[in-house]
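To: structure desk
From: M.T.
Subject: fold request, one chain
Message: Could you run this one when you get a chance? Sequence is below, nothing fancy, just the single chain.
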Amino acid sequence: MSKRPSSPDETARKSPRISPVPLDPSAGMEPDPFFQAVSDAVQLLQDTDDSAWARALQAPSRALAGFYEVLEAAFEGLLPHSVSADVDYFAVAQDEDVRRLVRGSVDANSLEALRAKLRGMSLPRRSPPDPEKAQKTSVINVGDVPYGQSGVEQAIATIRSWNRPFQGETARVLRETLSSFLDPGRDTYARYSTLVNASGTGKSRIVDELGKQVVVVQMCVRERGTTGFPPHDRDLMFWLTGKVSCNDGRAEGFLYALLTVTAERLKIVEKHCGLADLRSEARVNQLASAFRECMTEGQTFDAANKYRREFYGDVIAVAEKFADTRDYGKTVPSSQPRQLPNISKAAEKLMKVVFGGSTPELQQDFTGPAVIFSFDEAHVLTHTQYHQRTGGKWSVFSELTRVLRALEGYPIFSLFLSTTPGTFEEHELLPRVHRFAWNVPEKRQILPSITEVVFDDLAIRAREGEYTLERVTRDDFMGHLGRPLFGSRYDAGNQYVRQDLLDFAALKLVHSNVWGYQPLADDGLLACLAIRFAFEFRAKGPYEQQIEREQVECHMRICLAATPGFQTMVTVASSEPLLAEAAAIQLGRRVYFEQMARNLDAWGVHRGDRGELAAMLLLMKARDNVVYWGKPRVFSVVDFFGALLPSSAHQKLKDALPSVSREGECKAFSETFKDARMAFNHFIKVQEYEVVNVHYLWALVVRGAAIICPDHQRNVEIVIPFLFHDTTIQATNVSAVLITVKNDHAFGTEVWEHHFACMDPFDFELFSEDEAPLPVIRMAFCLGSRRSGITIVAPSPENDGSPEPPSQYTAYDIWCAGLSPETFPAIEKDDVKLWKDVARPPLGVLEALEMRDDRYMTSEVRQARSDMRRRMMPGAMALGPHFSAFIKLPQEVSEDDFSDKEEV
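Reply: Done. Structure tokens follow.
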């Protein structure tokens, strides 16, 4: 037997990005398209003898491609891409059980058995082109990967990204914000605020950067068993959460110790740096920067440095001694500042060290806080406890904020950093804030929460005409847009970290640490849908509010604003194309539609009043069908419509002439748009129509964003920009697909031409009056129609039979009626009812009438209760129960009696 080569011909391999979902043939489901695609190729390798391999080697482009595609899809459920790329697939396939299981996977529409086999194998590596760069081991053990090479590389990338120069103005804005909080005119409860936002937005890094200008004492109280950076201060966390109790003196002792030990350490830094005679603001800056170096230099991913550990060891020792002496002042009502002379004296001493002796002039001239106590991962301190005797609520956080009142009048501020909104409650120390109020009564004002974080500061700033679609759809470009987590990691990482950037983003989005395919929980599904479809939360109660908070805490959603205590908050799905692409990967091979449909109401998200969410889902499914399975992220407009519409309608569209056209532009659709290209992977909700102009749209093309228009303002709900001549991104090359969405039954298969007339691109201000407009595509999605059909609107002649005179613009019009497979191939026959549910208007009364809130209720009980509720709203809808109790009808009224205009 001749020796087989160590690695296959690279032309025989593809790189699918999505792991197939195991399907149950007994459930009557359609065969998975992935397995259908590779079935014929794998059939050539169904034998296990060497003759089959000999035949395969003679036709690698067909047989081996399918075989390796199945293997790679299986590995996507087990390994990150950087590791699976090193696997010698040909050597793996020499195992007869593997070859048998590959064939069995295709027959069973499932990869589970194959994955189980691979999970227990030692996988041979491919031979590297450079022997000096060979790995120390020649095999890969699947179970070791999450804790081996990949984990170490990710940790190194994290530290390197932390140490890179800070970019942006966020630290300056934070300092100015804190300065405004110290305004003497504010009558605040205590000088503290919360800095809360999603993971990866640079909260800790902003405060660290501020430590170069003012003295920042950073404390990370992250819980044991969780990972992150900067490293946690373990002993301090255990002491705060395990020792501090309500009114036992330890909270006072902690603050006294923090002030005292900081002053002592700063004196040593002052002497070491020769700052004793310096009295300007430069002194504070140099002292702060040197102290920051002492606290952070040499820290690792897992542990703080020795200096910092000893610092907090001293703080704990002094705090315990202080509490034991019981010398911390008399207890007074919590509504008044505590009389704590020792703490006041310690604060005075600290200020003298910071400012260089008794220098009131410098203190007056110095703007903002001179010292900041920063508690990272501060939600750990908000665990509610109950006093043994009184039963009153308290927490470590409430104890700390109580004693911080003793620092009133000093330029000392405390920040509590967290990804968890809604946990910083005052625990009865303050009157409850009304959920619609943005301030508590002025005399006891809580300072507003801070939500401003680093965003787009690492972006590669594009000039008009400088970039192409191919460039802006690469991982490295997309990763630098949005939060700094991904761009900084890409810049600091090696080739493996960069290759795995999309996988890393996908894990962060669904709050998982397991590589590859996993079933999506409801909250993970919501996160993926939210980032792609710009979900708006319109929470009506505590349950929905908690879901929204958890999306910020665990699933990367941005918090735009919040009231003190987070009684109300505004969150948004910001435009982050890398996260959107990661969401596309998570969703791409999963059957998620039923799971989504049954949860929409429970999530409290706004689906659009006219069926906009259903329309966006259809458009995005078409995009995903064009892009995935190894195809580029840039695709042609003609191909996009081939995925969106049935094949017969697509063929008619390609041959169709514009419904209106400028002189010389009356050409077939396929000819007009032969060079047009598009690339989008998410929607953003714009707040004003002025953005929907080519001079803004080109910038959104850079982000891979399609547009949801403002509610109920004009006759267009969705805009998808595309490039007309080539892939160069500039305003003169931008046109758009303009879509109006209707879920009213009145809009059926008959074309209402005046609706297209209302989508005039000049009236809509897509183009300016002095510009030569590019051809546009206009669509009407009549999702409430009871009949299905697609009409490609033809040019309309004048009444005398002569051609219509030239228009100011060229437009191709498509009328799509009905939510059915006949209109949109993306809709499965069994899912039609779910699609119609998604397209219905989210009216609170309608939801109540239709009993949508209980998915476990039987249809009989649902119908009976729904009829009774309808009787309680006489005359509200054209259905029998709204009339039958007080009107004797000649025949029962039902939905079937109310049809589309053309069906009457």
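Reply (cont.): Residues 10-129 form one domain. Let me know if you need anything else for the meeting.
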